[in-house]
Design goal:
Elements (H helix, E strand, L loop, with lengths): L17 H17 L6 H8 L3 H7 L6 H21 L5 H18 L1 H10 L4 H15 L4 H15 L4 H8 L16
Helix pairs in contact: 1-2, 1-4, 1-6, 2-3, 4-7, 5-6, 5-7, 8-9
Length: about 180
C-alpha cells in the first residue's frame, strides 16, 4: 500500500499520516463520482484541500493511488465488520450484521457506497470480503437458493408483501447468455 513518508503522525489503524488519509478520502470521493482509475493531481489537491506538493510528498506513486484506495477501503471494511461481530457466536448473526452494516454504511456514507457500487465487482480486493465471508461463516450453500433468498429479502425491504416477494424471487430464470469470445477455443 502507499503510505505517507512522514512517519511522525500516523493513524494507528491505517498506518497513514493525516495528509495521506485526507488524500485517500478525497481520492475515494473523486473515483466514486468520476469513475476510472486515475486522477489529475490538481483535482485531487483541490478535493483534499491540500497543495500539489503535499500530494506528491505523501504518495510514493500517484499512479498507484487507485489500488491503494481499494486496499484501504477493503481493509477498513473488513476490520470494522470483524470488530463489530467478534462477540457473535452464531454465524448467521455475523452474516446478518455484515449485510445490515454494509447497507447502513452505504446510506450514511454516500461516497463510500458509490465507490463500493462502482468498483466492488471488478476489483478483487473489494469483492473478496463477500466471496469469503458467507462460506467461511455458514458453510457452503447452494448459491442459487442464496440468490433467491436475497432477492426476496430485498423485495420485502422495498415494500413488497411476503407472498409477492417470494413469488417474484422464485421465478425461473434462463441463464445469462455466454458470449462466444469468452469460450475456450
Amino acid at each position: 500500500m502507499i503510505f505517507g513518508t512522514d512517519d511522525k503522525v500516523k493513524n494507528g489503524k491505517t498506518g497513514m499520516n493525516a495528509a495521506t488519509q485526507r488524500i485517500h478520502h478525497a481520492a475515494m470521493r473523486l473515483f466514486a463520482e468520476t469513475g476510472g482509475s486515475t486522477l489529475a493531481v490538481s483535482d485531487l489537491a483541490r478535493e483534499a484541500g491540500l497543495s500539489r506538493g503535499t500530494i506528491y510528498n505523501n504518495l510514493d506513486d500517484p499512479n498507484a493511488l487507485f489500488q491503494s484506495v481499494c486496499e484501504s477501503v477493503a481493509t477498513e471494511f473488513r476490520e470494522s465488520i470483524e470488530a463489530v461481530t467478534a462477540h457473535m457466536a452464531d454465524p448467521a448473526e455475523r452474516i446478518s450484521a455484515a449485510i445490515r452494516l454494509c447497507v447502513r454504511r452505504v446510506h450514511d456514507d454516500v461516497p463510500w457506497g458509490k465507490f463500493i457500487a462502482r468498483y466492488a465487482m471488478m476489483e478483487p480486493v473489494l469483492g473478496q470480503f463477500w466471496a469469503e465471508m458467507p462460506a467461511k461463516e455458514h458453510g457452503r450453500r447452494a448459491w442459487r437458493q442464496a440468490g433467491t433468498d436475497t432477492a426476496e429479502i430485498i423485495l420485502r425491504g422495498i415494500g413488497l408483501d411476503r407472498a409477492e416477494a417470494r413469488e417474484i424471487a422464485n421465478k425461473e430464470l434462463d441463464p445469462l447468455p455466454r458470449l462466444a469470445v469468452f469460450d475456450a477455443a
